Structures are given as C-alpha cells and as structure tokens.
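We store sequence with structure; for instance:
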Amino acid sequence: MQRIIHIEQGVCRMPKWRLAEPVNFTTLDGEQLAIVGPNGGGKTLLVDIITGRHPLLRQEPQYDFSPSTLPMVADNIRYLEFRDTYGGDNDKAYYLQQRWNQTEIAHDTPTAGERLDEAYQLAGQDTPQRQALRQELTDVFRMQPLLDKSIVLLSSGELRKLQLVATLLAQPRVLILDNPFIGLDADSRDYLRNVLATLAQRQALQILLVLSKTDDIPDFITHVVEVKDLHVQPKVTLAHYLATKPQRPSHVLPAHLQQAILQLPYNIYKVEPSPEVIRMNKVSIVYGNRTILKDLDWVVGKGERWALSGQNGAGKSTLLSLVCADNPQSYACDISLFGHRRGSGESIWDIKRHIGYVSPEMHRSYQRDLPTIRVVVSGLKDSVGLYAQPTEDELNACSFWLKVFGLEDKAERSFLSLSSGEQRLALLARAFVKDPDLLILDEPLHGLDDNNRQLAKDVIEAFCQRKNKTLVMVTHYAEELPPCIDHSLRLVRHA
C-alpha cells in the first residue's frame, strides 16, 4: 500500500527541536489521521518533522505524493493554524481597530473574493480544470455570498472557509489543520466536519487534524496518533483510541490552591458602590449595511455570572469590545460601567483597571518575546508588553497565578517558545492577576487540552466564589461553563 509519509528513527539535527525518542511515523493512502495530546506534549514538533521544517540527522522523511505531480514538499503538504486571522499570517493587530469601526476600514482592505483571486493566481496556471476546481470549492464551502465582503467583517466561521478554500486551490496531497474547530459554533463545527469528510472522499487528499480537545475528533478520521511528554505513541484506529481513552477529570485544581484563591486580598482599586456593573440601553451597532446589535438592553448586576452565546457573527466579540472600551463606537452608545456613564470623564485606563480580559484576538496580537512572567505582569499595567519595572509584590502575585495555572516552571521561559495552549494559560493568568471586579473571558479555553480545560474551569469557579466578583464568559461549548453561571444572554445574528 502507498506510504504517503514515512519517518523512520527520525531525530532532529537541532537538540532543542528533538522529541524524547526517535520518531517513527507512517501514513498510508486512504487513512485520515488525528494527532492528539496535552498542551506542550510535542504535537507541533511532530508536525514540524512531518513537513520537513526541522531537518533530521540520518534520514529525511520519505514521501510518495502520487497522483500529485507537484515537485516540492511544501506544495504537497499544507499546514494551517487557525488563529482567526484577518490579514494573513503576520497581520497581528493590523485590522483590529478597523474591525470595530466600519468608517475606518481602509479602501485597500481586500475582500474575500480578492483574497481568493490572489490564492488562485499563486497556485498555478489558469486552466479549465483549475477553474472547475475553484467553482467546486466555492460551491462546497458556500462562498458566493461572501466574495464581496471585506475580510475585516468576516466572522470566525467565514474566515475559516476563506483560509481553507485558498489553501485547497493549490491542490495539496496532504492537508494538516491545527485545531480547526476552535471558535466555531455547533452548526459551523458540524458543517466543517461534513465538508472535510466530503473532500477526503472526492479528492486524493489526506487530512491530518491536530487536536487539543479530543471531543472534536470527527467520524471520518480512521486513525489516531497521541503525542505526550515528547513521546510519539504508535498509530491506532479511532475505535481503539476511543475505547481506551481515559475519562475526563472532574476536578483538577488542588485544594490548597483553591483555598488560596478564596483567601486572596481584594484589589487595591476600590470600585464605588453600585449594584450595576454593566448597563446598556438600546445599544445598536451597524457596520455598513449590516446590523450587528440592534436596540440591545442589558444589565449585569454586581456578583452575577453570565454566559454569553450565539452563532458566529452574532456580535459577541463586538459586545465585549463595547464593555472593554476597545470599540470606538462605545462612546456614541448609552453604556454605563460600575455606575458611571461612558464618556463622563473616565479614561480607558480607569475602565480597564477593574476588568480582567482574555480573547482569541488578544492571543493573536500578543507577539511579545518576553519572559512569561513579564507577560503576566503586563496585565497589571493593561499593556501589550511591559514598559515599567514591576515591584516585588507584583512579581509575587504573578508567580502565584502562574503556579495556579501550572506554569511555575515556565516563568522565565520566552512566551513565544511556549506551546499555543501554554500561551493561552499564561494569558489567563494575566487576566486574573489584578484581581478584577469584572472578568471577561472570550473563548478562554481555546486550544486547551482536556486536563487544562478542567483546570481553567476550576480556577474560574473558585475566583467567582469570592464576594462581588462578576463574570461574563463566551463559549460555544456548554460543558466549558463553570457551575457558578447564573445568567445567560444569547445573541441572534441579524440578516
């Protein structure tokens, strides 16, 4: 049987890229694989070996991409990390403010159609066969209504479609997708699973899914490779993996750390007494011809814990940006925070000092190569990066929260050297470190493995047991909500 990828006793030339033992890894034609394992376990290192990014000492990976005639490994293996990017792989926060204000969208900001045109031209010559492929992908992914939309205004699910279609136009033999389901609502996840299954059947395409959340393994996957503690486990069938997978832990946070959270001293920045943390009166947000929020009335009382839900594109991130003062339209709306009307004289820093915040967009834009503890310290300053020397007390607070999230041994490690899941844990520590009165968590468990998802849930629950702590949490997975949730708001996407 055709061996598409074959690695035998693979050892990286650079010691820092090596796994704990030589890698043996083979994929056969007709197999569709999931690569699973804990955060920091080595999944990305394995992918880097598979793609040839990390050269090997003895024998390089062997490939058989037939029936593809493309000459280069990079042409035949395409790797996509899903970080909800708007401007490409290195956009950082380029489009962030534009996204919140339709009037500030630059005239040269590309549409989805223009991005696909670029991808089509880069992928090869214009032939009837490639034109037919483009039309097929446009139909399968239902792209036609999106082609005229600015990429800034695409939802997470729409962005996901754009990235996949642009990649598939190059006709790769192997498609590696890193956590493709994160950030998608239930309908979008089901749709993507079905589309990927269809593509795997229609084309000479092998799909490798890199998954932190093992509940996301779709039915079309035939085999699973687990990577943990820098060991690549033997390939097994999906049925065997599911039958032997350990049960998800019901509680992870140690009792002494839970107690330590409950006994923390309160924030030195005292909030004036007010029974209301958030009040919105008839708030409407319109981008061009599209209505995001319409006449929204919302009151969040002190000590309430809210779950915020809705389809991709329903306005959840927009709503949170209004609260955090990141959206320039917030000052034109009737919004009060902690009893103060927005625009009554408070600065953005006066608002933010009482708010702990984390989101996928913050993760994407936080590209600062600092020691991890300095990233956590920046949460005290509400900055991206650190521009002032922290005090000993501030460093002690940061060390505590790194310990809570299991990162105490990584305090001095470069933030960018951590795995994506470990980075997310560090940014969670950053959100908690100032002991905020209002905790806003937008998809806080993105990319976390089963153990760390439960850990984060335990920490949120313990924190919200403290007096007058208010929570607004966004997730597309109901099982990720902590038990303390006592209110909910579901947004509906406007046509």
Notes: Residues 125 and 235 are 38 Å apart (CA to CA).
